[in-house]
Structures are given as C-alpha cells and as structure tokens.
Automatic annotation (TrEMBL):
This is Probable septum site-determining protein MinC. Belongs to the MinC family. Residues 150-244 form the Septum formation inhibitor MinC C-terminal domain. Cell division inhibitor that blocks the formation of polar Z ring septums. Rapidly oscillates between the poles of the cell to destabilize FtsZ filaments that have formed before they mature into polar Z rings. Prevents FtsZ polymerization. It comes from Gloeocapsopsis crepidinum LEGE 06123. The lineage of its organism: Bacteria, Bacillati, Cyanobacteriota, Cyanophyceae, Oscillatoriophycideae. Interacts with MinD and FtsZ. Keywords: Cell cycle, Cell division, Septation.
Amino acid sequence: MTDSALPEIENAVVPPSNTVNVNLQVRLKGEGEKLLLILPTETETATATSWSDLWQQLKQRLNGGDRFWQPSTTVHLIATDRLLDAQQLQAIADALSEVQLQLTRVFTSRRQTAVAAATAGYSVEQTSVTKINQTLNATPVPLAEPLYLQMTVRSGMEIRHAGSVIVLGDLNPGGTVVANGDILVWGRLRGVAHAGAAGNSKCLIMALQMEPTQLRIAEFVARAPTNVPSQFYPEVAYVMSEGIRIAKAADFSKSQFSLPS
C-alpha cells in the first residue's frame, strides 16, 4: 500500500480577487490517508468570522466540488484558536458524516474547545497556534522501500522499519515487528505486529496464520482472542470505526472496506 498524498482542495465559492487569502477560509487538505479540516484563526482575520460564515464555507467545501476522498476517510479538525462548543462540534461531525467522512481528532489552542471535544469522545491535542502551524507546514515523510526478511523473528527480537515489512517466516511470541507501512507475515504471526506506526490507520497486517500476542494499527490496539480456532486461514487485520477487525484473506475486498488502490 502506498501512502499517496491527497490533493488540497480550494474550490469554495468566493469572490474572484487577487487579494483573497486562502488562510482566512475554511480549507480541506489531504495528508496521507486522512483529511485535515482547517479553520481560519481568529487572530488572522481582520474582521471576526462568525460561526454562520464558517458553517457556510464548510458546506461549500464539502458539497461544492468533486469528492476526491475515499468513503470512511478520517478527518482531523484543525480548530486553531477558534472557540467551539459541543453543539458546533457535533454539527461539524454531522456535516462530515453526510459525505462519508469521520471526525476523529481535534487540534486546538483553546482549553474550552479541547474540553468540549474530549467530552464528545474525540482525540484531542491542545497546543499553541504556532505549533499547529508548524505541523501543517511540515513536509510528509514518504514510506521507505519495503523490507524483505527471509527468517524467523524470534523472542526478544524487534524489527523497526520506515516502510512495509514482509517476513518470509514466522513471528514468534516475544518478537516484535513495527512498520510505518503494512506488515505481511508469510508464516505464523504469534508475536507483536504494529503497522502504520507513524499514524496511518489504513495500513494492514496480513498473515498465513494469525495468532498474535498483540496487533496495533496506528493508535488502535487489539489482543488475541481467548479461544484458539480449530482451523486457521490466511487473514487480514484492518481498522474500521469500531477498531481493529480481522477477515479471511479470501473474503477481504479493498472496495468493500474502501481502502485506496
């Protein structure tokens, strides 16, 4: 799976002018496998932008052009120094849901917004506007070339790689593989596998025989079931809204789970 960046969309209906500053508009920006919904800061605007204005801009962004995103794409709301209450956050989440997007995280410099977001069940990062802008301007790091290992990852071994990892062998209990991309174990996976370690929840973990001590994809964690199945099949672990799911490889469909090609 490649971590291809989505294009930034700037297609809201705004008056044509050479002086329009896009930083004063609501923006949608692709970053890897997620979208950033960026609100203009209050300190940047010469005149205060009302909630009504923000809401209209948001609706124009979501409905005014081609929907370039995949269904169920996660969204990080960059609220900057905007004061948002629970009702406004819910309205944003509902608008995103209408176009098959899912709000999962909120970045804000306002304590009140952070409290409202956390109370609503979203992941929250409260930091300064300067640090938020530094994060937005950071260059995404591309995945490294896949790492192929023809070996058994034994107890006490830890493999870390900035791309995908393919193990032609077993991953034993006590062994760990951490990858920024996908993990494929062409054997028995009985240790710890952490795919999408840099935060990409669209990554996959695949194995001929799935008996993990622990599975992690991005920030999602799953442990092995207590009941050992009587028969094993090649399986794929992936993230859905409720967490990590496992499906038989024969039943797994990228189109069904809306993963990028």
